[in-house]
Amino acid sequence: MQNVVFHRYFLALRPPTLLGTTLGMMGSVYHLAGSRLPADxxxxxxxxxxxxxxxxxxxxxERIGEALHDVRLPAQRPVFDQLVRANDRAxxxxxxxxxxxxxxxxxxxxxxxxxxxVAEVPHSPPHMTLAHGRQxxxxxxxxxPISWRADELVLIESHVGAGRHITRGSWSLGEVMxxxxxxxxxxxxx
Length: 190
What we know:
The chain contains four helices and nine strands, in the order E-H-E-E-H-E-E-H-E-E-E-E-H. It is of the alpha+beta class.
């Protein structure tokens, strides 16, 4: 009898390879328990695009590609400065709202909807899961900020429960849109 696999699709930002590898090695520093995610599965989910028990959905992947073929969306710079240990996972989160990433999530869902692709913004704030499984301790602690310039959007097909991610598409993102707005007296001094 063949195992039944649930195929879930989502759009995400991935950390660069070196950062992902470093985060993978930081598990012992962060005192993480459970199954640590390998570097190639670390990501920040931007939009969920449903799933199915059927074989991979090439038409869905094609429609998403059509919706995003001329994407002119800005690169993102997520900044995570908290480690949250919950009962069943460990996450990197932000102490301040990631307004650019949140706005980006909604823009993506809108663009997909205009192309007839049903997608939704995840209910939780942007985060990166580092480990699944019971944690030795729970709570939130501040950590040194972890940030990167995310200049690629990826479409991932996840084989839920099998620990497998397949990249089905990728799109380059433009310049980082973040600009620091200094209060006027400080702007004059600069």
